[in-house]
Amino acid sequence: MIIAKETPALRAIQKTISSPIEEMGYELVRLSFNSSDRPALQIMVDRKDGEQINVDDCADISRTVSVLLDVEDPIEGRYNLEVSSPGIDRPLTRPKDFKDYEGFDAKVVLKEVVQIEGLESRKKFSGVLGGLSDDSARVILNVDGQEIEIAFEAIEKAKLVLTDELIAAHQQS
After folding, report:
1. Domain end among 34, 57, 84
2. Which label site among 61, 89, 121, 132 has the fewest CB atoms less than 10 Å from its CB?
3. For position 21, which CATH number holds?
4. Which residue, of 54, 84, 114, is where some domain finishes?
5. What angle do CA 28, 165, 105 make, to 5 degrees?
């Protein structure tokens, strides 16, 4: 699970809500806080059983998380709580996501610019997911016909690209 723009408050929130969400049968995919005009705590979840997240699931999680956060009060001021599914063109935040979506197109942004043999130095890569290395520490990505490996820890953010193949696969599940 990735905490977008990690802060002490988000780490405390993750610690507070992770176990209760898992006990309810869900997995925390991403946690972020948007402090714009309308501050919002955004929580993305998957069902452990692989079924699609529905509105009732989000409402159940929202009620549970609201109670937990009312007690802990980790965020100053008012904010909106948003609970959602990751969607079709989901963020890839856990090693298992890169394995589960092997064969699909993805965009990967690294924490810093890297030089990979045969490619120009860059921070952003687009290609077809090739799964994980044998030790699950590196993501395999086919970029411009070249298979590269990227350390999981080097990834700032990654997401699936919405394609006809991804839509078709989503409709079958």
Report:
1. 84
2. 121
3. 3.30.300.70
4. 84
5. 60
Residue-wise pLDDT for 5-31, tens only, equals 677 888 889 999 999 999 999 999 999
Q: What would the mean pLDDT of 73-79 be, rounded to a whole number?
A: 82
Separation CA 24–CA 27 (nearest Å):
9
Of the listed ranges 47-56, 58-67, 68-77, the one predicted with least confidence: 68-77
Note whether residue 90 is domain-resident. no
Between the CA of residue 17 and those of 56, 63, 159, what are the distances in Å? 18, 12, 24
- Give alpha helix (H) positions in the chain: 8-23, 55-72, 95-100, 164-172
Q: Does an H or E element contain 22, and which?
A: helix 8-23
The vertex-131 CA angle with 127 and 137, nearest 5°, equals 110
pTM, full prediction: 0.82
Bridge partners (DSSP) listed for residue 30: 2, 44
**Angle at the Cα of 128 (from 104 to 117), degrees rounded to 5?**
165
Q: Nearest 5°: phi and psi at 99?
A: -75, -45
